Amino acid sequence: MINREKNLESVVTMLPALKIRFLILFVILSGRQVSSQQPVDYMKDSDINNFREEVFVRTDRDIYISGEDVWFKVYTLNGLAHTPDDLSKVVYVELLDKNKFPLRQVKVKTEKSSGSASFTLPDNISSGNYLIRAYTNWMKNFSTDDFFYRTISVINPFESIDHLKIPPDAKSADSVNAIAKALPQGNIYDNDGNLVIKRSSSGNSNKVINYKITLDKPDYVSRERIRMEISASDIAGNPVETSLSVSVAKSGVVNSSGLNSFYRTGNADNRIHRVEGPENLAELEGHIISGYLRLKATDEPLKNTDLSLSFVGKTSRCQFNKTDDKGAFNFVVKESGLNEIVIQPLSPDISGYYIELNQPFSSIFSKFKPAEFYLDSSRLDQINKVIIGMQVNNIYEPFRQTTSDEATNVIPDFYGKPESTIIMAEYIELTTLKEVVKELLPNVYTLKQNGKHDFKLINKFRGQPFENKPLVLIDGVPVYDFEKVLSINSKDIERADIINTRYFISGNVLDGIVSFVTKKGNLGVMEFDNSIFRQVYEGCQVQNSFYSPDYNTVAAKYKHIPDFRNTLYWKPDLHTGKDGKAEIEFFTSDESSDYEIVVEGISPDGKTGYSSASFRVK
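-> structure tokens emitted (618 positions)
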């Protein structure tokens, strides 16, 4: 058995190190306090005290049909060196309409300076151009003009087209195609109609990657395997290791401009623009859940108060922290997807409070807007095929087998391996939890004082009696009303974990832990009063795999499920090796069409590259 007290003391010594890392970050990154709501010019980008991050986004294509999925990859870069940087572990991506209302919001987990995710366009979205904007939490300290912006076009085939504009002359293309002729991935304007300046990160020819796409043949038939080799080299012809994305989609929804996504919006004078407000922390380890603890009656902050954040479930995932002088708190979480959380003071004596969470997405919007949307009559046949493909795919979506790309890691209980675990199914059935404690749980007993029951633990180390109550958990959540706990029907309990040693965590000393896990694991066996902050919270998106069927077997090739994919293949996390090469393979669909391949990537030293190629499915 591990010496828990000694082990936990070592954990305590690690906690200041984490604080020191944040302190170093503030010394390096902040440098000075923010003092004006209006942008304030400070120093040149070379000033380390104003460390900058950059975010770039590549989508699987440029034109979509309402109700389709938009797949994308995000890159995070050091804004000073313009090289990949993994300082922030979360990128915030939003889809904005013409009124700057966010139609979709996604938190993207990044690893090694990139990440990928997707969102589904609303079925009732209007035809038009929309902005995708992306940023990190640290970037919220600066002007929203320096966020990343990208234009996509959406066509809703079920709405009237009377409101759509016709190009001023017959030679004009649709908005996205016209954009490609001027600046990469979409013109963006301010409220006065001025084109927003974009400063390309690849203006220096020495910073360019040459991607070569080689196919095993120029034409294919339906459900045939395609083998592709991608090679990356610098201007001197030397192989380059790169992180890249590969997209294969119908030519009618892709614009091959020859210009990559590594461009910048905002002012061209390289000035720093910091904004007023609380400092937004860089998310070094994961997503930060932040907020304030205040008294309901006076709205005064509860200062220096110990708090716990818990995830409801069969695994105990508790964090502990303390509010500052303004009642503010921060919790760093790594959980993805939807989870029910509970935030509450660690002391049961605190009442009459409320908790307010900070909005993780920026509520400040730039003056930018996309170009006006025009229909391109030359693409009508291609667009009609895309619309039909979307409808067919939606009908047969339930019959497809999709998986998650995210590794399923077994998350341990925060307290580690317990001293004892009691599995209820292995014992005779008792009525209440009070009987379970009395008859089954080792080193646990109840003591009635002043008409109320308390839990007590016997310390594993004899001669060192506990003076305080243990931390009692139900489905991972601290509970302080022991009368309610003891009245729980034992039939609802799956197991009980006992830690009868002192537990040190985040500056708190716990006289042991008793954790009860219910069969449903949803905290449904107890009722909480309204003062408890309990809500479903969405963390970073759980990565879903792009649907790319394998028709290698005869049974799969002749399977009677139509395949009308508009995006044939999407690979956001491909890498070329030291030899500068990468190989992929995928299968065509049931449609005869022209397809466009788009490859885009970046090297560790900031070189960027873009290449495209085409093929036909007969």
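The radius of gyration is 28 Å.
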